[in-house]
Amino acid sequence: MTTLGIGQLAKRAGVGIDTVRYYERDGLLSPATRLESGYRRYGDAELKRLHFIRRAKALGFSLEDIRGLLALSEERDVATVKQVAESKLVDIEQRIAELERIRSGLHTLIAACPGHGRAEDCPILNALTGQERV
Amino acid sequence: MTTLGIGQLAKRAGVGIDTVRYYERDGLLSPATRLESGYRRYGDAELKRLHFIRRAKALGFSLEDIRGLLALSEERDVATVKQVAESKLVDIEQRIAELERIRSGLHTLIAACPGHGRAEDCPILNALTGQERV
DNA sequence: CTTGACTCTGGACCTGGGTCCATACTGCAG
DNA sequence: CTGCAGTATGGACCCAGGTCCAGAGTCAAG
C-alpha cells in the first residue's frame, strides 16, 4: 500500500498543500495516520476522497455540499444522493437563467448603441441613468 | 431642489445606509455637500448616480467596472462605453457556458441514476469517486 | 427642554475558499 | 554528519461587497 506525505498527495490531486490542510480543518479529509513526528500520512482511500472533493467542486458543489455528499456516500444512500444532485441541478439552472436575463439586457443595449455620437443617444448610459427601461 | 440625508437617499435607492458610506469610501459616490455638523447631504444628481450604480450592478458589473463606467459617462465617451459593455457581455457569456457545461454533466449523471439500489450502481457516486468519467 | 430618531467616525467582522508567513522541527541523500 | 527539502503549527491576509458596532454628537417634534 502506497502511503503519501502531504506534498505528494497534493501533487497527485493537483491542489496546493495548504488546500489539503484547509480541507482537514474544514472536516473533509483527515490523514490516515501520523508519524511520531506529526507528519501526515495518506493512503489510497484519502487520495480517492480528495479526487472526489475536486470533482464535486468542478460540478459546482460547495465544500458544505461536499461534506454532505461524503457523509451520504458513506451511508451508501443512493436515493438521497440523487436528490441532492437534483437540487443542485435546479440551483445551477437558476443561476443560468439569471445570467441569461442579464445577457439579454446587455445585448439589447449594445445592439441599440451606435457607438459614437452624443452621450444622450447612448442607450447604455441612458439605461443606467434611468432614462429608459432595460 | 430636494436635498436628502443619507437615510432618505439610501431608502429611495433601496440600499442600506452602510452601503452608501461604503460606496463613498470606494470612490463611487460623494455627498453634494455636508452640514456644519458633518451630516451628508445629497441632491438629485447623487440619487441618479446611486441608481446608476445599482442598475449597473444588476447587469453584472463589478464596482470596479462601475467606477470606470462613471468616469466614461462623465467624459461622454460613447465608443468606450460600448466596448466596456461588450466585454462584459463576453464575460457573462463565458460564465453561462461554464454553468451549461456543469449542468449537462450533472444532468447526464442524474438521468443515469436509478435512485435506489447499491451504491456501486449509482453513477453520481461513481463519477465522483472516479470509477467513470463525467 | 427633552426625547427619540438620525448621523458621525473608525474599525471589526462576515462569507468561501483558499494562500502565505514565521519559526521550528524532521527526513533523506550524499 | 551535513545540508536542504519537506513538514509542523497557529495565525494573518486576500478577494468583493458589504454589515455591524460603540460611543459620541445632532436634528426636529412636542
From TrEMBL, chains A, B:
SUPFAM superfamilies: Putative DNA-binding domain. GO terms for molecular function: DNA binding; DNA-binding transcription factor activity. InterPro entries: DNA-bd_dom_put_sf, MerR-type_HTH_dom, MerR_fam. PROSITE patterns: HTH_MERR_2. Residues 3-72 form the HTH merR-type domain. The keyword DNA-binding applies. Transmembrane segments: none annotated. Keywords: DNA-binding. CDD domains: HTH_HMRTR. This is Zn(II)-responsive transcriptional regulator/Cu(I)-responsive transcriptional regulator,TIGR02044/Hg(II)-responsive transcriptional regulator,TIGR02051. The lineage of its organism: Bacteria, Pseudomonadati, Pseudomonadota, Gammaproteobacteria, Lysobacterales.
